[in-house]
Amino acid sequence: MSEGYAGNKGPKIKSDCHVTLKQQPSGGINIQLKSKVEKLYGDQIKKVATATLNKLGIEHCEVLIEDSGALDWVIAARIEAAVKQFSDTSETYIPDLKPYNQYETSKERDRLSRLYLPGNNPKMMLNAGIHKPHGIILDLEDAVAPAKKHEARFVVRNALCSANFYGAERMVRINQGEMGIEDLQYIVPHNVHLILIPKVEDPEYICRLDKEVQRLEARHQIEKPVFYMPIIESALGVEKAYEIATACRNIVALAIGLEDYTADIGVKRTSTAEESLYARMRLVNAAKAAGIQPIDSVFSDVGDMEGLFENVRKSKQLGFEGMGCIHPRQIKVIHDGFAPEAKELEKSMKIVDAAIKAEEQGLGVVSLGTKMIDPPVVKRHKKQIDRAVRMGLIDKNWQETYNQE
């Protein structure tokens, strides 16, 4: 007799379930359900469980589902994870892709905030998007216990199809090394936008990963690009930052992870971040040289909003274009910190307005008062205005209003 277990249970567990499955030689499928909502949703829970088992080729088994308010896609993920602890079936039970998740991403989109969520905790995935992070990371690496990594893959896969991300970029942080390569089959065919690659030290690993992504894209006829964000977390990674940033064309951002970096160089991470200044500047320079976004590390004290804002301000001054976060309350502070200040925005509007007028007049030189404005300066200020428009700070037709004032 074969057995499998998956999921979470206990008085503090919500929006999840625990499945105990025992395969039998005969007798059909027998489901025992323990749920406070059995009278309302018991039939639906059993229907999802039966459909999943049928798709996986399980004809005879005893199933105990201890439900704590799990949605259909969570129940299916838990049952499949339990089955595949003892079965080598290649069949899968994939939920339908929801209409609200059928939006694309782009290389240039803002990534000011990216919210980390544990890949084995579906409760946190359900409403994360309402806080409006630019990206939601379903984490298969550090946030998942080693014994739970197998079943987390099914939760993350189903969440990419069924959880509402409310317009956020759908991101997954894979595991390191070979396990990370294995993770790809669970996410690339199933609606992921961007893959975070942890602890990168060798650009060849990214090339190998990219080849596997391309193989999966061809096999599943995926035409939309899957982007990458390597994370630099060691001294060696810092020294190879530019090589990593240019390892393949689908890299759109380069991030730094300061907890592991400071541990690697043998120093304590401090609130001033003086110990990591060289690494952060090296990463910013490499990213800018490669034409991609430099993304700063998380700020780990979720209760210190003033400290976070100061950290964001310094990050912006160094040239970073985003930061990780581990709690929804950090998102607005990060967005506000990276947003153009009023004086900055006014200056940008003057410069871009002058550039537009110069172009309309056929002038090859942009001037503002007695100062000549170089094209790279115009480009930088235009980028700032575009971000302000996306953030709702100014109207997209700002120039019409600006010229009337």
Automatic annotation (TrEMBL):
EC number, as in UniProt: 4.1.3.6
Domain HpcH/HpaI aldolase/citrate lyase: 114-328
Keywords of the record: Cytoplasm, Lyase, Magnesium, Metal-binding, Phosphoprotein
Main location: cytoplasm
GO molecular function ontology, one term from the record: citrate (pro-3S)-lyase activity
Keyword Magnesium: yes
Location(s), subcellular: Cytoplasm
Pfam families membership: ACP (PF06857), HpcH_HpaI (PF03328)
UniProt cofactor(s): Mg(2+)
A GO CC term attached to the entry: cytoplasm
Top-level taxon of the source organism: Bacteria
BP terms from Gene Ontology: oxaloacetate metabolic process
Record-given protein name: Citrate lyase subunit beta
Native source organism of the sequence: Salinivirga cyanobacteriivorans
Gene from which this protein is expressed: citE_1
